[in-house]
Amino acid sequence: MPRTRAGRRRLTQAVMAVCVLALLPTTWLYVAAGDRLRTAADAPRTEVAVVFGAGLWDGEPSPYLAHRLDAAARLYHDGRVKVLLVTGDNSRADYDEPDAMRAYLTRHGVPAARIVTDYAGFDTWDSCVRAKKIFGVDRAVLVSQGFHIRRAVALCEAAGIDSYGVGVEEAHNATWYYGGVREVLAAGKAALDAVLRPDPRFLGPKEPGVARALAEAEAGTGSGTGAGAG
């Protein structure tokens, strides 16, 4: 500690300035998400819902991911969305979030033809940019846990998607608190992504999956449990 009163005052001011700067990205997330948060019961009717990956346990969706998928299935069954875009990590052969998400949804009554898979959603920014640039999504309801949904909405808005968020409620256990702390740290990267707008780790060519699934939905076809659009 500085020995002089002036030195201690300067140190206090410096610590306060660092704290304020550290919290600015989190503040931006709250402002950017604004009034865009909804529940599954009152989400706006739109064509597409985007469901973000949240890990697998022995090849099956983790409890947190399963809760996201349950909310997305409810949106579909309630007629609030027509197509579900599931985005997650398939960076190695033995780890496939999107197909596990698709299988879970079909087991819960969502037709496979209404599920579109994004295998390169390695993080939230990548998922948002790819939803816009690769799959042509202009407006969507986003589905994630409450501690993550503001970041998802802010980043998808920055990527050019008119977004509303459905935050899934969870018990406030150790995993929930870890997620909340992680979000404070992730807010800084999110702010940089929104400003710098980097390309995703993998961009690739445009894919017609969402447009095809929506066309089939409008035509009333492809509502069985066969293979869906990828």
From TrEMBL:
Entries under InterPro entries matching the protein: Cell_Envelope_Assoc (IPR051599), DUF218 (IPR003848), Rossmann-like_a/b/a_fold (IPR014729)
A GO CC term attached to the entry: plasma membrane
Chain ranges of the DUF218 domain: 48-163
Cited Pfam families: DUF218 (PF02698)
Gene3D superfamilies assigned: HUPs
Taxonomy, superkingdom: Bacteria
Coiled-coil ranges from the UniProt annotation: none
Name of the molecule in the record: Membrane protein
Lineage, uppermost ranks: Bacteria, Bacillati, Actinomycetota, Actinomycetes, Kitasatosporales
